[in-house]
Amino acid sequence: MSELRYNELRDEVVVYAIHRQERTFLPARDHCPLCPTRPGGPPTEIPLQHFEIVVFDNRFPAFEAPRGAAEVVVYTDDHDLSLATLPPERAEALMWVWRQRYEELGARADIDYVYIFENRGVEVGVTLHHPHGQIYGYPFLPPVPELELAADERLGGCAECAQLAAELRDGERVIYENGGLVAWVPEAARWPYEVHVSIREHRDSLLDCQPQELAQLANALQSVVAGFDRLFDRPFPYVMAVHQAPTATARAQPAHGHLHVEFYPPLRTADKLKYLAGSEQGAGAFISDVLPEESAAELREAIAHAA
Ligand SMILES: [Zn+2]
Ligand SMILES: [Zn+2]
Ligand SMILES: [Zn+2]
Predict the structure, then answer these.
(1) pLDDT (tens digit, 9 = 90+) per residue, 108-141?
(2) Which ligand is nearest to the CA of 34?
(3) What is the per-residue pLDDT for 121?
(4) Ligand approaching nearest to the C-alpha of 243
(5) What values do phi and psi take at 217, rounded to 5?
(6) Which of 45, 216, 272, 294 could form a disulfide with 180 if both were Cys (CB 3.0 to 4.6 A apart)?
(7) Is 132 one of the catalytic residues?
(8) Could you tell me how far CA 288 lies from the centroid of its own chain?
(9) Which of 146-150, 239-243, 251-255 has the lowest mean pLDDT?
(10) Which of 125, 116, 124, 77 is nearest to 97 (CA)?
(11) Is 68 left (phi over 0), alpha (psi -120 to 50) or beta?
(12) Which residues, at least 6 apart from 20, have a Cβ–Cβ distance to it below 8 Å?
């Protein structure tokens, strides 16, 4: 059972998913529930000996039908790979899976926003190490995409297009480019190694992308994560958030967004975490001790050497 409650003072919805306390927590490797089911071995969530990409309903969902959705996307049957080390054709296939889930979940009347994301590392609360991501179908428009839409209205145009153009003009914080995608550390990044990956042509969502752009998106994401891992020579924890147009069918306004992916890594050095403390939590003001231009230079170098 999950329940939504509204906080008037913050104008925000909080989701209560109390059954989630029972979640599987960091099982031993040979009890990984996302590995294939081996003959004679314990059954896992996936009753197959081999697979490429598998999507299934989260057994411990934050949301459940008929209000919202919570799905798990397993990238590979190889426990030891990551988004960075998947074969490129598998990473590209993952983009097509994301696209298909966006289309199918977005068509549902109970889902206003399809949110694709990945939590990586115990530092961000990961309970399973097997390479996987998640998809939430929110029965409301969450605050972060809502803020981005409000920025579009304020500017009278696409804020993402404007930021992308400004970053390309400036160039100092750009860390990676390919034909269709650009990655940079935002000028006002909240996290020391925050990275923003955006599609050059305005595309509201994955559904509007050309096949070649999906391949380039996969390549950009793999390059960024490979650079992260190279930076401190360790698997780099992060939250990866895919933002695209809301899918609310009840709303009168046209679907508008600009497909982009944001990475929020909690590390500020190889072994020090950035904590959200008094200023961030109580006042909502982020304080960072690294300039985005400096971390961009480090990441640009790391991506070049990881290639
Ligand atoms: Zn596994
Ligand atoms: Zn745009
Ligand atoms: Zn965004």
Answers:
(1) 989 999 999 999 999 998 888 999 999 999 999 9
(2) 1
(3) 94
(4) 3
(5) -65, -45
(6) 216
(7) yes
(8) 22
(9) 251-255
(10) 116
(11) left
(12) 60, 61, 62
Closest Cα partner for 269 from 196, 194, 192? Answer: 192
Contact 162, 155 (CB under 8 A): yes
Q: DSSP letter at 195?
A: E
| Cα 277 to middle of ligand 2, angstroms | 33
pTM summary value: 0.95
> Peptide bond before 66: cis, by omega within 30 degrees of 0?
yes
With 0-12 CB in 10 A as exposed, 13-18 as middle and 19+ as buried, what is 256?
middle
Contacts of 47 (CB under 8 A, 6+ apart): 37
User: Hey, is 51 helix, strand or coil?
Assistant: coil
Return the amino acid letter for 229.
D
Distance 38 CA to ligand 2 centre (A): 46
Query: Which ligand places an atom closest to the C-alpha of 262?
Result: 3
Catalytic residue among 132, 196, 243, 260: 132
- The rounded Å distance from CA 132 to ligand 1 centre is 9
The CA 172 to ligand 3 mean position distance, Å, reads 20
- Give the Å distance between the CA of 56 and the centre of ligand 2: 32
- Angstrom distance (rounded) from CA 174 to CA 166: 10
Least confident of 5-19, 62-76, 219-233: 62-76
Q: How far is CA 122 from CA 9, 87, 98, 266, in A?
A: 32, 24, 24, 11
